[in-house]
Amino acid sequence: MASHVSLVAGGGVGAPCDPARSPLPEPARPTLSELFAAHPRDAGWAGFMLAQALRPGPVLWVQERMAIFESGRIFPPGLGVAELIHVEARDARSVLWAMEEGLRCAGLSLVIGELWGDPAALDFTATRRLAVAAERSGVACWLVRLGGSANLSGARMRWRIASLPSLANPLDPKAPGAPAWEAELFRARGAPPGRWSLACEAGTTHSLRLVADARDRTLDGVGAGINFARQRSA
Amino acid sequence: MLTLEGAHGPVIHAVTAAAAAHGARAGMRLTDARALFPQLTAIPADPDGDRALLDRLARWAMRWSPLVEVDGDDGLRLDVSGAAHLFGGERGLIADVAECFARLGLTVRSAIAPTPGAAWALCRFSSPRRGEGDSAQQSGVRAREAIRTGGTPSPCPLPLGERELAAALAPLPVAALGLSPQATRTLERLGLKTIGTLAGIERRSLARRFRDPDNPLDALDRALGRKPDPLTAVQIVRPPRALLRLAEPVADPAAAAQALAILIPRLVAELEARKLGARHLSLAGFRVDGSVASVTAATAIASRDPDHLERLLRDRTELLDPGFGFDAFALTADWAEALGAAQESLVEEPSGSAEVARLIDRLSVKLGGRAVRSPEPFESHLPERASGWNSALASVRGAPATKLAMTASRPQRLLDRPEGIAVIYATPEGLPRRFVWRRAVHDIARVQGPERIAPEWWRQPSTARLRDYYQVEDNAGRRYWIYREGVIGDGRGGAPDWFIHGLFG
């Protein structure tokens, strides 16, 4: 059983490569990223996304009503976001409008919009407008698609996130441990697509690290076999 | 019958005429009244609500006179000098008062007299029986009125001359002078039961006997008009308002936007002069047929930035239907807060928090105040209570975020209503193995729990069951928060039900 990080990059599934040469790509400046949940009832993407939130400051979180019905309303005690503004929008058009308004406000640190399915209002022009607004104001923006398909989009980075079996819990072998995700970057400007297995650094929310694939993990605890960690300043 | 909580149980605050007929009196204990007549219906009194109603009535009573004073807990006094002729003299005025209050559903007792003290006395003591409940009282230097609900409306006396006034007051008890209870009791012990007998005593001996500020001679002089007794009128602060009258009615829907552009600078100038910032704005269009159309906007922090205020209302002006045409527009800051002159920074860029507040304003105007919310944590173990939400407009900006001590991990998403799931678990209190949610089967690979959350017995019914929360992970690595409601044999229902409540990220 491999005790090193199994980082899969460049497309070839299972081909090990040096994690130091292909770390998790990161946009040079805040921009629009599109994120597809692997399954509408898989909320793992939220942990992945918040682990990447960098700047402190208020967060604008826009949820389409259908997304709230299907996969729940955000729950502040579990989010660890200090200042939050939540918008419940009736339809996709309102979501996009609210996101664009939020992106004009440089006082925010992050704008998140959740859309359900493939709404007609979400076309290339709409996503391009968001990307331009995000780059102009310097506010990071995540467009989260629940149960949608990857159509034409102006997003600079497009991710597909699925939950992985969590890491071993050091205190209780039967209990879930630190969450882990499989992140697939299938389209990005200026970065090659790839696939990463990631886990949240225990005890902190704002750091990500690469972990062994679930089938390659050792059975003896969390810390074993991790030889690459990405630390980010909160 | 209304009751208040006293030191020794409920005390009667006010009674209806029917309850009074059965022996109930204000000030009695409820148990004593029930001993006299067991079928009495008691309702808790709401003194704050009464007070607020009286304040509103005081503003409304300005239809008769600009000088209105709230008198005690149940009265209004009006100075109607020089105003009575507008209502057909004193008699017409008092009839108008009775009619207008009757239309509001309030029974009033009113009196009109040349001095406030005399009007007070006549209103409350001239009828054979004291009225109960809310009341309002009106008075003037030449005309007084007192209005009490609940009492029988009686034809009120109209003593306008000094001699008539003294004659009208003479049969009233000394309590009608409005003295302290001690002074009234002293007078009664001296055998001076009515104002008439008191007035018959030589002034010098009275002055020798009573030296306090609260003395019957002063009260008598005030009631008879020998000493001044001014009213303290209710101050009404006019909200900042800008008005635009049009020479001709305009039916063009675009006119409202143009009117707004004219009105905003005027309103901002007034706000600036009074050092106020608007929190709630309304733009009203007055149509030629007398009807009014209005749109409103609210702000999260007080603002008098013309561009921002105009932007809030501009899109909404389309909602103003001109009908047969508008002939006037009014822009009112219904709710304004003190706002000093502030300079955020030396450069023009507004600060982050002010910008976020403006963003909240824009979102709330377009999507509705209830759609834009911020978390308001509440100290409760029940997750749906702990994540309180409050309108982002109402939440205090800049307040330090309250951090609740977290005992266990919480999901990142919570379903608005927990959804029932079918679970295979080791009864009675074993770990869940498999569950079906929305017709999909999830095999549980790992589970942590239970975290037991007991019902809040102080607010939930006694049938509420405890919850055992489990954090479960299925084979695909998706993590959910499920709970079992109740345990077998807790006497609060049959077999426990399972629910899914949250999703972990």
In short:
The complex is a heterodimer of chains A (234) and B (505). Chain A has 234 residues and is an alpha/beta fold.
Describe this structure in words.
The complex is a heterodimer of chains A (234) and B (505). Helix content of chain A is 19%, strand content 28%. Chain A has five helices and twelve strands. In chain A, β6, α5 (124-137) and β7 (140-146) form a beta-alpha-beta unit. In chain A, α4 packs parallel to α5 (124-137). Chain B contains 14 helices and 19 strands. In chain B, α5 (116-125) crosses α10 (216-223). The model of chain B is unreliable at 128-155 (pLDDT under 50). β5 of chain A pairs antiparallel with β12 (372-377) of chain B, so a sheet runs across the interface.
Features:
heterodimer, A: 234 residues, alpha/beta, eleven-stranded mixed beta sheet, 5 helices, 12 strands, globular, disordered N terminus, B: 505 residues, alpha+beta, six-stranded antiparallel beta barrel, four-stranded antiparallel beta sheet, 14 helices, flat
Any chance you could write out the topology, listing elements then pairs?
The complex is a heterodimer of chains A (234) and B (505).
Chain A: E1 8-9, E2 32-37, H1 45-52, E3 59-64, H2 65-71, E4 73-74, H3 76-79, E5 84-89, H4 92-103, E6 110-116, H5 124-137, E7 140-146, E8 157-164, E9 180-188, E10 194-200, E11 208-210, E12 229-230
Parallel strand pairs in A: 2-7, 2-8, 3-5, 3-6, 6-7
Antiparallel strand pairs in A: 1-10, 8-9, 9-10, 10-11, 11-12
Chain B: E1 2-6, E2 9-14, H1 17-21, H2 30-36, E3 43-44, H3 47-60, E4 67-71, E5 75-79, H4 89-103, H5 116-125, E6 135-138, E7 145-148, H6 162-169, H7 181-189, H8 195-200, H9 203-209, H10 216-223, E8 241-250, H11 255-273, E9 276-287, E10 292-303, H12 306-314, E11 326-338, H13 352-367, E12 372-377, H14 383-386, E13 387-391, E14 413-425, E15 432-437, E16 440-453, E17 467-474, E18 479-485, E19 497-503
Parallel strand pairs in B: 1-3
Antiparallel strand pairs in B: 1-2, 4-5, 6-7, 8-11, 9-10, 9-11, 12-13, 14-15, 14-19, 15-16, 16-17, 17-18, 18-19
Helix pairs in contact in B: 5-10, 11-12, 12-13
